[in-house]
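TEACHING EXERCISE
Course module: macromolecular assemblies
Task: Read the component lines below, then compare them to the predicted structure of the full complex.
Student: A.B.
Group: 4
Components provided:
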Amino acid sequence: MSQPFIVIIAGGKGERFWPQSRAAKPKHLLPVVGEKPLLAQTIDRVKALAPKKNIFVITSAVQEKAVRAACKALPPANIIAEPVGRDTAAAVGLAAAIVGARDPRGVLAVLPADHVIHDGKAYTADLKAAFAAAAADDVMVTIGITPTEPATGFGYIQRGEEWGRFARRPVYRVKRFVEKPKLEIAQGYLASGDYSWNAGMFVWSVPVVEKALAQHAPELDAALRPIRTALARKRPLAGVLKKVYPTLPKISVDYALLEKSTNVVMLPSSFDWDDVGAWPAVCKHFKSDVAGNVSRGLALVEQGSNNLVFSEGGHLVTVLGVDDLIVVHTPDATLVCPKSKSQDIKALLKRVEVLKGGSKWL
Amino acid sequence: MSQPFIVIIAGGKGERFWPQSRAAKPKHLLPVVGEKPLLAQTIDRVKALAPKKNIFVITSAVQEKAVRAACKALPPANIIAEPVGRDTAAAVGLAAAIVGARDPRGVLAVLPADHVIHDGKAYTADLKAAFAAAAADDVMVTIGITPTEPATGFGYIQRGEEWGRFARRPVYRVKRFVEKPKLEIAQGYLASGDYSWNAGMFVWSVPVVEKALAQHAPELDAALRPIRTALARKRPLAGVLKKVYPTLPKISVDYALLEKSTNVVMLPSSFDWDDVGAWPAVCKHFKSDVAGNVSRGLALVEQGSNNLVFSEGGHLVTVLGVDDLIVVHTPDATLVCPKSKSQDIKALLKRVEVLKGGSKWL
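Instructor-supplied answer key:
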């Protein structure tokens, strides 16, 4: 097998970690956990798998500048900005086209930029096994995250019989993908041991992606052709992307390709994983005080427990006599919100949007 | 009667409205309600009673600069800064000495700087009646605030028989002063109709104050002599205050004089009055939104009711999914606290004090 390729999808709207995250600075550009932005942490992890020239980041125009700043280790040409967001199927098609221009039989991993994974060793070992599987046959390999609780916020992948072993790791046929379940259903999934979380981590060869596009998403496949031509002729991408992207269908890769294919296999993960979906999920990655309060920057909690208090820029944030509250202060905006309501930040941001000059806070 | 004198006592620690209030900028220097600092509002009200040259403000050294800025309408010499705080008995002794140097038989009102009173007409009418009473006989006239609820945070004054009528207003003998009562006791006071709140508003002549000092607080009286001498010789006050003040006993005028005197009378107030003792008390003076939220500056509440959200300096403060919370943002510090816990700000500030460089926030 030739050297593998890594394509990191760095998108997102920057809503769930507002006011730290913004449209131009979403979660993957924040050190939500750790000292570096999550995107930089992701790049650090995959460096063990592929040379830098084989690592790509696909992001959006509005985030491009900040992404380039966070990816100084990579060749500048490996940062590709989508002029408009067209969901993951388009991004995967673009990824396969870019890799295909380098190596028509290349194998690439498509990975999210904004997950928290501490055990880099297990992560790269799993990915190596997935690369071996994807190189061995015309299959789509998904990394299924081994569930730790009956989560209702993720899609699940049900495995079937064992399909093969790679680096001593079992790889299973995929029976089906299922949407985010209700709690009782999720409890059944967890108990059965047959289900993994779908975290959007895929490993496959360029021909497998291209064949699937042609078969299941012919419209997208056709629309991507000018991009492949530009790449083959080594023309700069920006111009063709600007022309092609607005015409692409907006569809997820799960729906466009995975769910319609019969050659999907799944490798259950052995690494720790957290998508840290919203502010409350941050807490478990920080050391708390005796009362369970988590803080960053100049924060002080008196008579309160299990609060998250983050402050930037030397501003003193004090919380008195309250529990389970999120208080995040940035130089131009502050959020105060109970942990139980953090999923409603979107509704709040709709209100911010219509304030006079509201876009400056988004 | 010669022209009356007004002495406004502008002290306070600046704790209860932290972080807007600070040691050098306590409540009376804030526009807690209205557009001007409460001290400036107080001066505006008493201008109808006395010429500017007869209006004095006694404040503390740490607040002097800000007080002078808020009292530009008064002669600079009428702002007197106590080098150290020695409670209200010392301030009243100093007030009487200052007025006595101008008019040995002068009548002065001693008034707090930080109360909210909207009906200035009724206020000046009541004070005029009190001045008339104090000029008519050797009595200490207190303005008793007519209670509107069984408050447990104020001392009460029980009235006895009617002592006289001034400007058609009845003035009663005072039976006794009582400390802050428990709720059931306060309910009884309110029902009886015999009790008023003690708001620290006194009207009396210089000889009455001096006689009471000599009789009930001889130590304080003796210690004040060098101040009287300096005033008589028209020497600047600062030097003698610096020498004398640290030696003065720290005692309230209620305890030192009023409670020990038998010539105390009380005029029940006819004006609205609010001492606005802490953040929650601010709300009723502001227009709220339909959900009862009160805000000032760039504040936004989504899915929440009865919150107070104040922001300074163009910083956007957002509150999502919470009720009855106080959020006050200033350029260098923010407070988040349920209304029910605002009395514990003192405990919080003890924590701020021990932070590295903590004094800069106090």
